[in-house]
Amino acid sequence: MTRGKFIAFEGGEGAGKSTQARLLAQALTERGIECVVTREPGGTPGAEAIRTLLLGTEGEGWHPRAEALLFAAARSDHVERLIGPALEAGKWVICDRFVDSSRAYQGGAGGLSDADVLDLHRVGSQGLLPDLTLLVEVRPGVAEARASARDQGSSDRIGGRDAAYHARVAAAFARIAEAEPGRFARIDGNNNSERVFGDVLGALQSRFGAF
């Protein structure tokens, strides 16, 4: 059986990743391609439990090293129990965030080295990387407005951090994408969802040909 494709959507808060993941799943299904849509942190019962620990606003929260360890643990379970088996079964996996979010948030914005984050990923998830990572980039004002409309005044622990933190996240994503052009496609997310999705499809066709 042919292994499935692994597609990850990355970007900051309010980029529209979840919407694009849903649209892509619909398009693949219409083409007769079986796919799984999932998210990080989460995707399995254990990883969803860790998500609650990471994003809940109760208590004092976690320092970046603890955050990175928790994300790596959630990702390990996600890869072992859902992503890996789906790919081996020939399904396409569409994931809202993967390891590059840890590299941008706990690494670029949180101060951990990229090497340390990738070492955790190597141990926890055997270094699995997406076949294509779609980085959806939006201007800060657009991101803030979308996130505010989505959250209705109740941001999670990480989403609610200050603008300087999120600017560091965006800069880290850009650096990672520039360094790894063979895996990344950068998508202008400032337009409406239909136009953005046209660019997403174009990136997939450029990478994989007809599908």
What would you say this structure looks like, in words?
This protein has eight helices and five strands, in the order E-H-E-H-H-E-H-H-E-H-H-E-H. The protein has a single domain (6-208), classed as P-loop containing nucleotide triphosphate hydrolases (Rossmann fold, 3-Layer(aba) Sandwich). 56% of the residues lie in helices and 12% in strands. Helix 1 crosses helix 8 (193-208) and helix 4 runs antiparallel to helix 5. With 211 residues, it is of the alpha/beta class.
Provide a concise account of the structure shown.
With 211 residues, this protein is of the alpha/beta class. It is built from eight helices and five strands. The chain starts with 5 loop residues before the first strand and ends with a helix.
Envelope shape = globular
Structural class: alpha/beta
Strand order, biggest sheet? Answer: 2-3-1-4-5
- Kindly state the percentage of residues in helix: 55-70%
* Contiguous uncertain segments of 5+ residues: none
Distance between the termini: 16 Å
Q: What is the annotated CATH architecture?
A: 3-Layer(aba) Sandwich
Strand runs, count: 5
Provide the CATH superfamily: P-loop containing nucleotide triphosphate hydrolases
Strand content: 5-15%
Radius of gyration: 16 Å
Largest sheet: 5 strands, parallel
- The chain-level mean pLDDT equals 93
What is the C-level CATH assignment? Alpha Beta
